[in-house]
Every structure is written in structure tokens, then in C-alpha cells.
Design goal:
Length: 132
């Protein structure tokens, strides 16, 4: 009992201590803000959809984002989620481009061919019998 109490006291004592090996501040290099960004969506990759996006800085707080997605595959039993989609977006960055929060407006165009698919929770049951 005494050992457990001593261990708890020592543990609580060391829990509140912060140790520093060196306490000197090194100068941080100044990094210029990005002018272009290239990105991909991992969730789309998991659904076998090719995707690529790029974002350009067009003003001090404005960027133009352009994303494209393409899925050409037909799966077994003629299951399809074929589509091609593009999405341009203008973004106004509140702090600085490519950092923290933004307000954006975008357009979306998609051409798709989906059918013979059973979705969970019986969402869109007509996908099993019809092609869209």
C-alpha cells in the first residue's frame, strides 16, 4: 500500500515537470507563401477514381482551384460508377493563401454512368435495376 502511494506521488510530481535540454531560440527561416499547389483526394483513389487538383495564387488573398476526376471502370456483373467531373473554385483566404480558413465559390460539372449497384441502407434502390 505504501509503495503504491509513493509511486503515485512520484508519478504526479514528474507529470507536472517540463524538461528542456536546450533553451535557446534558433532563428527561423522566412518561407515565402506558395504560388501553386498540386493535390489529390485519397478517398477518390480508394474508389478507383483518378483525380488531380491544382491551385494557383492569383492575388494577395485569392486563389483559383481546379479539380478533375475520372473513373472509366466497369466492374463484374456490369456494375458501373463511370464518371468524369470538373470543379473550378475561387477562394478568398482570410489570413494568407494556402493557410487556415477560406471562403469559396465553385461550379461543378459531371457526366456519369452508374448502375447495377446495391448501396448500403437501401439508398437509391433504383440503381440496382436502372442505369443513370
Amino acid at each position: 500500500m505504501v509503495r503504491k502511494f509513493a509511486f503515485c506521488c512520484i508519478f504526479i510530481f514528474f507529470l507536472g515537470i517540463t524538461l528542456h535540454a536546450q533553451n535557446t531560440e534558433l532563428p527561423r527561416p522566412q518561407i515565402a507563401s506558395s504560388e501553386i499547389g498540386i493535390k489529390s483526394n485519397l478517398l477518390y483513389n480508394a474508389t478507383t477514381t483518378f483525380n488531380l487538383g491544382t491551385e494557383f495564387r492569383i492575388a494577395s488573398r485569392w486563389t483559383l482551384d481546379f479539380s478533375a476526376n475520372y473513373n472509366p471502370w466497369t466492374f463484374s456483373d456490369n456494375k458501373k460508377i463511370k464518371h468524369i467531373a470538373i470543379q473550378p473554385e475561387f477562394r478568398y483566404w482570410i489570413c494568407e493563401p494556402f493557410n487556415k480558413h477560406f471562403i469559396g465559390i465553385h461550379g461543378h460539372y459531371a457526366y456519369y454512368n452508374a448502375g447495377n449497384i446495391k448501396l448500403p441502407l437501401n439508398i437509391y434502390p433504383t440503381l440496382q435495376d436502372h442505369r443513370f
